Amino acid sequence: MEIDVQQGDIMRLDVDAIVNAANESLLGGGGVDGAIHRAAGPALLEHCRTLGGCPTGEARITPGFGLLARHVIHTVGPVWRGGTHGEPALLDACYHNSLALAEQNGLASIAFPAISCGIYGYPLEAAAAIAIRVLRAPRPEGSSLQRATLVAFSADMAALYRRLLSA
Questions:
Q1: Looking at 4, 33, 92, 156, which residue is catalytic?
Q2: What is the residue extent of each domain of the chain?
Q3: Which class would CATH give 8-166?
Q4: Residues of the chain above pLDDT 90, percent
Q5: Which neighbouring-strand residues pair with 149?
Q6: Less Cβ crowding at N or C end of the chain, within 10 Å?
């Protein structure tokens, strides 16, 4: 699977799925989550209401509705509490479960924000290292996934992703 880095707005990407760093209710919130819900329109919220939420580390898929992306994969990242409360395993699970859902639905392209790196406070370098490790892991035979994009909210985050990918 090819991995690339882009800086900017994840909602402007023409991909099969964008990943939403959601909260457990899946009913929208601040940051990227709220922006995705606003851009997708009210049908996304109505659909999310039928899902019954999503525990931290798991993922759920919905149509993209008003978005350019055809699907939204909602995953709930861990809140950083010092790294001793299972945060690395939970963040790993976010990426792993999002990729698995994409494959189960025959998707070829997926774009990830920096999960848990906003108000959830995950240290950027540690989070980026987990994302890249999971994305570089071999995919199951016959995987539909061809491309994963790491979408950075800042030039510094894009540079961090690129540095770790080149290592």
A1: 33
A2: 8-166
A3: alpha beta
A4: 97
A5: 4, 111
A6: C
Pair 93, 57: CB distance under 8 Å:
yes
pTM: predicted TM-score of the whole model, two decimal places: 0.97
Structure tokens at 94: 């976010």
In 54-91, which positions are buried (b, 16+ CB within 10 angstroms) versus exposed (e)? Answer: bebbbbbbbebbebebbbbbbbbbbebeeeeeebbebb
Q: Which residue has the tokens 């570089």?
A: 136
Q: Is 33 labeled as catalytic in the residue annotation?
A: yes
Residue 100 buriedness (CB in 10 A; 0-12 / 13-18 / 19+) = middle
Residue 75 · residue 94 · CB < 8 Å: yes
Contacts (Cβ under 8 Å, ≥6 apart) of 148: 1, 2, 3, 4, 99, 109, 110, 111, 112, 135
146 CB-near residues (< 8 Å, 6+ apart): 1, 2, 108, 109
Average model confidence (pLDDT) across the chain: 97
Mean pLDDT of 115-123: 96
The reported pLDDT for the residue numbered 30 is 86
58-112 confidence digits (pLDDT tens): 999 999 999 999 999 999 999 999 999 999 999 999 999 999 999 999 999 999 9
> SS3 of 105, please?
coil
